[in-house]
Please model this.
Amino acid sequence: MSAGTRERVDEPSHLAFLFGDPVAHSLSPVIHNAAFSALGLDAEYRAMKISPGDLPEAVSSLRSEGVLGANITIPHKEAATALVDDLTPRAKTIGAVNTIGVKEDGRLLGDNTDVAGFLAPIGSHMESISGGSAVIFGAGGAARAVCYALLTTMRPSRLTIVARRIGQAEQLIADLAMADGSGVLCSTFFDEAGRTVRDSRLIVNATPVGMHPADAVSPWPAFSDFHDGQVVYDLVYAPAQNDKQTRLLREAADQGALAIGGMAMLIAQAAASFKLWTGREMPLDAVRKALSSTF
Ligand code: NAP
Model:
């Protein structure tokens, strides 16, 4: 089935989609369908498992009548940049699209709402971390959005990408050179990053390490490197057990650091997509209530 094809006679008048593989675990349908329902919109959000070969047709089908747009997830965020008509400057610099909207003239706009999503929960802490050094674990798609967000707001004195494949980190640095006007980006391996972690005001986990069910592991098990005055931000959503915190965040908080989990980012990036598609603010209370019943 292409994304725009109606399946039933009682179809909603508007549709939005998630294209990715896998998608079965995704919380995005819970979030967006709760928001549509709370606002009384005749719309539905559907997760579609799409192979790389089927992505061009799936994106093209967003031009069908009644389609609001789509979210794009692993492994298609980079490929989607070449399939839309226009890119926002941030999506272009990051090199990844997580949201496609349909403009009034019918053109498809690729955006990256992970930037706004990442910034939402640290906005109130920006003053304490601004101008200091920061470190990001991982060099994949989410790390790119985090890098862009930090370079354009926090203006860190140094931003270190910690990766197990240094070539991936170096590629990220080359691609984000446009946003890195003052050349603060650098890279290192995990086993060489101890001092960098201790000296950083902000530490971000942008790897999947610690994700349920592997929630006994941490991307930074040397927890004594954390201390008061640091912000530790784990993009991984909280697992169902362990007081809804990842091991990384539990250990960071025990050492006096401020811990931020990935759920707030998940909701905020969805809210930015929802606004692009509907022009409406996402009803966050209804969304949080729907999510709480899934955990
Ligand atoms: P990705 O593109 O696959 O990148 C993952 C990065 O983590 C890569 O650099 C990868 O390196 C590294 N990595 C994976 N396993 C590792 C390990 N055991 N040790 C060290 N590094 C490892 O994935 P992504 O889209 O960036 O997502 C990363 C995480 O962020 C996921 O858990 C995702 O759910 C989460 N996320 C959360 C939100 C939110 O709203 N909260 C939004 C986006 C992403 P290799 O390439 O060498 O494997």
Notes: The two ends are 31 Å apart (CA to CA). The first helix runs from residue 28 to 38. The mean pLDDT is 93.
